[in-house]
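Fold this sequence, please.
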Amino acid sequence: MTLIKGIPANGKVAVLGSGISGLTFTYFLSKLRPDIKFDIYERTNEVGGWIKSQQLQTPTKSILLEKGPRTLRGVSDGTLLIVDILKQLQKEDSIRVLSKDSIANKKYLSNSDHNIVQVPDSVTSGWKFLLGTNIIQPSLIWGFLKEPFIKNKTGNVDESIESFFKRRFGNSILTDSVISAIIHGIYAGDINQLSIKSIFPSIKKLEDEHGSIIKSVLFSKKDKSKEKELSPALSQYETLISPNANLVNIFKSLTNFPIIAMKDGLQNLPITIYQNLFKDSNITFHFNSNITEVNPANGVIVNGNQQNSYDHIRSTIPIKSLAKVLKTSSEVQQDLKSLEYVSIFLVNVFSTKSNLIPKGKHGFGFLVPKLSSNHNDASLLGVIYDSDVEQNVKPLIDDVSTVDSSDKEYNKITLMLGGHYYNKISIPSSSLNIKIVKDILEEYLGLDLQSKNLIIRDESNITDKTINELNENDLLISYNLHNDCIPQYNVGYDDLKQKVLSEFNDNTKLSFGGMAFGDGVGVPDCVLNGLKDALKLKQM
């Protein structure tokens, strides 16, 4: 783990990147140490990083297109922090939640025939799932029966997710049909490359401590009456930053809401934090910055023709970007560059009337497992049913005055293509990808595109965000290519992470935030990581 030096009184800190990681780190540390001056460097002209809520304006209404993360899933420590931050900034009424029993909480997988099968939430759907995914096979059943008797892998040796489950169950049916789909939805990664230790540490722990996954699940007992216990980081947060947070109560209020969103888009989360930080005279934002050198030894940053010295530098930008400007040894450069990233071709599809979601398959969306890869020339990872989620969320605060009165007629989905598939081939041209998208809409979702008027927008290259009124027959297709947007925790990642962090120990003035060498790739993971390191830096 990185040993982080404290910052002297009235010290200076540089933060690279104004995504959720950079903003929340600054928020926490500025509360802990109001004497510190911050310079936040952002290469674009807005905050949010990969969280991007694009608004297209017609003559009568706005169309929200989420170009990155759009919801927060689960009641994690990071989610509790986010809710309390919004509460402290008097934006709690912008939080939207989805109930467990909502139709929009139903999840689906695509099988090898491109049929969409519901992930079980009842006995009936469980039986349909088993039949629809063809997962009931003698070899898998036999694998489950033998698993308790499989010997552990000796030594602290890492292996891929696929290798781990194949070793435990004797086949790859489970990974090919189900687990690979889950990984596609979170990491857009390849289960044959991703590390079991890094992605599923709790499952690996079951093997290490109990010798069997099956035995551990069958015989473990959970004390459901036990109160939520705050982690050390959350306890310090309540003591030092937000004494009235009552995170245990927030936890209880969120237990029935597996999905959390923001009114008018998730980018309102970083925007809200930015608006608060902007008021602080000790915090300066530098938009459209052009950093050409970062020196971790002496804390010097060169931005354009200006050179500034800092007591600490917090990098939350992609490691590939940092490596280009970091003044360090060639060996360290190679270590940084060895971290693999994947790219995503993200497509929003919007219609005022046309039903984009298959009849009887409403929910959160569907993911495409590895099993379908032989029939997946489209490199499709999954499809999110945005309109189902948006039309079924409700305010966290039970106050009728905050209920949205938005249009409920529209249909909107998001397609995610590429990920690890693009690392094996060159990324297709936009024109080819649009052709692929059309095939997906017809093949998976059963749309008749011949009867539609397609309005296709390359959003990253169109500055004008106003469009004509959409008619019933219009189908809006808006796309963006996100290059190197998700780091991959491949086999050996833990060793790489520890090596990199040890290279930037207390002899340097640099620490890492964000997805690469933090606590995970999710928004709550990045927020929690920012708190932990801010707590380490608070001492003088």
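The mean pLDDT is 90. The chain is about 35% helix and 20% strand.
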